[in-house]
Amino acid sequence: MRFLLVEDNEQLAKAICDRLSLDSHIVDHAGNLSLASEHVAATTYDLILLDIMLPDGDGRRFLRRYRAGAGKTPVIVLTARSEVSDRVGVLDLGADDYITKPFDFSELEARCRAVLRRQGGGASNCKRFGNVDFDALAGTVTLNGTATALRNKELRLLEVFFNAPEQIFSKSKLVDRLFSYDEDVSENAIEVYVARLRKHIEGSNVRIITVRGLGYRLSLA
What we know:
Elements (H helix, E strand, L loop, with lengths): L1 E5 L3 H13 L3 E5 L2 H10 L4 E5 L1 E2 L2 E2 H10 L6 E5 L4 H10 L3 E4 L4 H15 L6 E4 L2 E4 L4 E4 L2 E4 L2 H12 L7 H8 L9 H13 L5 E6 L3 E6 L1
Parallel strand pairs: 1-2, 1-3, 3-6, 6-7
Antiparallel strand pairs: 4-5, 8-9, 9-10, 10-11, 12-13
């Protein structure tokens, strides 16, 4: 999944990015609210991690404007404030959760998973489409009782398709979902990963269909 981290502490930001990258997430980092606004205007995120005290303003103002503008991406607030009133305040502004600094990275990961499960309307990391089971946390696709481990980009690509079956995704949209701004890739890379996924689900009743001139969609055979 693609996350946006809004945090001005470079050391902490790098540590969070490195930790979340181990789970194969794409993490874009913004050190201030201005850059964060540019990011959310340019791409779609699955989750936003938002610090409160930033060089160019208060993260709560960003959150208020984002929700007022119909921004629906889940937001976890990173805050050094432990008072109940502060925590209640960010939840009332539209935050989905909060975590108080300093925090353990395992707790942050767990909160990210919980928020994303709620966003997906379920309590499990496993999803089924047709006769294929996909576990994003384990990084596996299961067909006829046999689980196959997926590589990083294969995992994220299948996650995009499973989150919106029957929806058409252009190559440019998929590049945006799979790669960070720092990665220089061509749309041809998507063809390679689609080909790999097709092999993994071969023999199932699920297909990745090429829609000529538009892109790809996950469909039932």
